[in-house]
Amino acid sequence: MSNHLAIATVTATLQRMLQTAIQISLEGARATTVRPNEVGGATPQTGVNIFLYQVVNNHTLAQNAEMRNRSGRMGETKRWVSALDLHYMISFYGNEIELEPQRLMGSVIRALTDQRVLTKELIDDTVADSNFTFLADSDLMEQVEEINIIPLDLSLEDLSKVWSVFFQTPYNLSVAYRATVVMIPGETPSEKALPVRSRQFGGIVPFFNQPKIDRVISLAGQFEAILSDSTLLIEGKHLKSNITEVWIGEMQLTPTEISDTKIKLPLTSLPAESLRAGMQTLQVLHRNLRLIPTSANNGAGTNPTSSSANQMLPLNKQSTLSSAVQSNVVSFLIRPRVTKVSVSKWQGAIDEPRVAEVRVRTDVTIGRKQRVILVMNELSTENPAAYLFEAAPRRTDSVWITIPIKEVKSGRYLVRLQVDGAESQLTVDTNRNSPTFNQFIGPKIVIKEPI
Fold first, then answer.
1. Are 143 and 238 contained in the same domain?
2. In whole angstroms, how far apart are CA 289 and each of 208, 295, 313, 324?
3. Domain check: are 44 and 132 in the same one?
4. Which of 21, 29, 84, 254 lies at 20 to 30 Å from 224 by C-alpha?
5. Does one domain contain both 213 and 318?
């Protein structure tokens, strides 16, 4: 994580990086960081302007960071963490007759395509630059999370609103990018109350022993991947009570196989469209029977766990927490499974690397804001090639995703998909009579030789 200078450090790093890029293309061009309506003044200016016009909270990454802090594994003692996405408008100025703005735009897009991540070295060099002495105390380079630079697909209407409402100046040739994510922790230290000597609820009903989760693994084995159709094995202490609920994120399930030390929970009991690849949070809650509304008890005052297996209950987690004994929160990773893959839109001449589109289908929905990376490894024993390609931003959630690839040599490739760091698995040949026994055999695609 980083201190209060993180936002300014990101802007300065971008400015310094783009200054280097545009100088090569157009001598004398300058990279500035002023409001667009202040560029140039009375004299036309040739250059690029980087302006931070919006800061958006990234709630998902903030919650993950706070959960790590509360677990104590990261050694953090600060209470709250802000995860920020920085939205930049990059505009271009110069002699329109000689197409200088368009030439500068090409240089910037090329630079940001090659440098999708603000590396520690780039940030170090910026902080050490004598032009940015005011950033001397910045510690952004110590942030664990990568800062990715992603192009934004703004519509003409969105661009018009930004220029006319925010900047209140005539439109100039421009593109928008997002820097994600910048982590800024608070300075107030955490607090811990004195231990409770007796556990009572409203002075009437005593709590059961507080549940504690030790680990969440696949029922298939400790080192087996957790997939969309896996059964979770939750191990811990004091897991069973009159009413035991398991919450995965904001989704609540009532399991049927419960003991004091183990809970079995099939993920197939969740609606298929609700599953996402990546890091998930899980918590066990014990609710007091006397505080459950009659409708939740089916009007009989009996334990609802006797109802159909893994019933989804339409409850709100925040309202449930006030009437429940809570376990610790544990994380687990759901891996996507590639169910179909194809290649289309071939381009490329003979003896040249190929350009194409790879279309992948997974068994879980991919969120439009999730980061997706295609991993390709050539099936060859002689200097096998390997490639990584990141998917462009998407407008909707979908089980299908299309990733453009380029500069890929012809051959057969194994394909994996990383969704927010959760990587799909490769298929292993288990046929002992096969020449590829115990080797990876799929999913795979073929990058064809030009015809």
1. no
2. 11, 12, 15, 10
3. yes
4. 254
5. yes
Phi and psi of 253, rounded to 5°? Answer: -130, 150
According to DSSP H, which parts of 298-410 are helical?
317-321
Question: The domain that contains 397 carries what CATH number?
Answer: 2.60.40
Q: What are the φ and ψ backbone dihedral angles of 225, each rounded to 5 degrees?
A: -70, 150
C-alpha–C-alpha distance, residues 273 and 381, integer Å: 40
The answer to whether residues 81 and 138 touch, using CB atoms and an 8 Å cutoff, is no
Count of H helices and E strands in the chain?
A: 6, 27
Whether the Cβ atoms of residue 152 and residue 26 lie closer than 8 Å to each other: no
Domain end among 334, 357, 374? 334
What is the model's pTM? 0.50
Q: Domain boundary at 334, 362, 393, which? A: 334
Identify which of 209, 210, 213 has the alpha carbon closest to the alpha carbon of residue 235.
Answer: 213
The letter for the amino acid at 403 is: I
User: For tokens 């959960």, what's the residue?
Assistant: 67
Asked if 172 and 74 sit in the same domain, the reply is yes
Going through 27-124 in order, the beta strands assigned E by DSSP cover: 30-32, 47-57, 81-93
209 and 320 in a single domain? The answer is yes
Domain range for residue 416?
338-447
pLDDT in 10s for each residue of the chain, 451 residues: 678 899 999 999 999 999 999 988 888 898 998 888 765 553 347 899 999 998 998 877 766 665 555 544 444 445 677 889 999 999 998 888 999 999 999 999 999 999 989 998 999 999 999 999 999 989 898 888 889 999 998 888 888 888 877 777 788 889 999 998 888 887 665 555 566 555 554 444 445 578 999 999 999 998 899 998 999 999 999 898 888 889 988 888 878 789 999 999 998 888 777 888 888 889 998 876 554 444 444 443 334 443 433 444 445 555 555 567 888 989 898 999 999 999 988 776 656 778 889 999 999 999 888 889 999 999 887 888 899 999 988 889 999 999 999 888 888 999 999 998 889 999 999 999 999 899 999 999 998 765 5
Q: Give the count of domains, the chain.
A: 3
Separation between Cα atoms, residue 24 and residue 311, nearest integer Å: 63
**117 shares its domain with 217:** no
Residue with tokens 């990546």: 278
